Amino acid sequence: MQAQYTVALVGFPPAEVATLSSFFRLAARRPPAYRVQDEPRTADLLLVNADHPRAIAAVQRAALPAKVLLIGQSDGGSGWPLEQRPVRLVPLLGALDRVMLPTAPPPVSPPPAPERRRDFASTDLMPPREFASTDVMPPQALQSRFHPQSRVMPEVPRGEALLVAQSLVEGRILLKRFRQYGLAMDWCRDPQQAQTMMASHPYRLVVIDRVLGEPDGLSLCRLAKQRRPDTPVVVMFATTTGSMERMKAGLAGADAYLSRSVSEGELHRLLVRHDLAEEGGFQATNFGEF
Description:
Blueprint: E1 4-10, H1 14-26, E2 33-36, E3 45-49, H2 53-62, E4 67-71, E5 82-83, H3 89-100, H4 128-132, H5 139-146, E6 161-164, H6 168-179, E7 185-188, H7 191-200, E8 205-208, H8 217-225, E9 233-237, H9 243-252, E10 256-258, H10 264-273
Parallel strand pairs: 1-2, 1-3, 3-4, 4-5, 6-7, 6-8, 8-9, 9-10
């Protein structure tokens, strides 16, 4: 087994190239290491953006000897192994190892032993445990007995965007900032309830402030990005300004990782870029009114 493989990134935007390159540098001590290089013709592995059809077509035409791993929603009929978005660090390393390292054939399991049939004589008594299994209960009783959490919550009107913020003060500020662009916002302070709301309603936008507990903000971001086909835009507000947290947010699928002091102009441009606000001007937020 080699101690290091070279990787070329094909078809990714500059932000994702920077994020993936930083991740591979941080994971270099783990054997085998993966080192990013610019030249795909001499690389051991090509990591290709599967959501960029021209990138897949270019790799197919080049017919390079390197092995290929796709990242995205579909392999485009290429048959190459595919890692779904959002990208997670440890599973990505495992997928790279499976592509680069030969795998042993699965062990052959022995044939199952023939089932021993038991015949009851006319004088035999059925054991109590088997007799109890023949009890018939109405479906309503079975549901309430074995599925205590299966009660259906009443339907309530939902907006087009969800704000997850535990802080009462910061939540009110963020709510007012996004509502000024005409977005119908729902606000949830409980991360577990937010998880349920995302699963039951196709939000166009999910805004995640600092979240403590389980699931945390990164987990909520991954859950939102796994929704198909109505994948929302996810905006996370920074817990810290470090590059590591920004990289984690990018790999979790966040479309933007912003400081709480982000300017109104930058926030407006972000929403316009994702068709969540109109091109026209914006009004400065009055933080004194809630």
